[in-house]
Design brief:
PH-domain like; about 100 residues; alpha+beta
């Protein structure tokens, strides 16, 4: 489920929730709601498999996270932090499952 909100500067962003109510992906801040809705539409229509995600390691090397970008390389969103590879992969599967809801 997508939840649309505003940051402290009144710029729109979205969060994607898993079935158990945890935030699994948070978008960047957008200049307009239209731009945000275009990225939500992109997620729903174009993100279909694991290859749409890039896995990264936090600077201190202790935690993992993933990001989602468009084919053109524009950042759409970032996951929460994970300690274990297994949990990160579960998070990616959850995004793939929940973006269609």
């Amino acid at each position: 489920m997508f939840f649309r909100c505003e940051d402290g500067l009144k710029k729109p962003f979205f969060a994607l929730f898993s079935g158990n109510g945890k935030i699994i992906l948070t978008s960047k801040s957008y200049e307009s709601e239209q731009e945000m809705e275009e990225d939500i539409r992109y997620l729903k229509e174009e993100v279909k498999d694991r290859y749409s995600f890039e896995t990264l390691v936090e600077a201190n090397g202790k935690r993992l996270y993933f990001i989602v970008k468009t084919r053109e390389g524009k950042l759409i969103g970032q996951s929460r932090m994970y300690v274990y590879d297994k949990n990160l992969e579960i998070g990616i599967k959850s995004v793939l499952l929940n973006i269609t809801i």
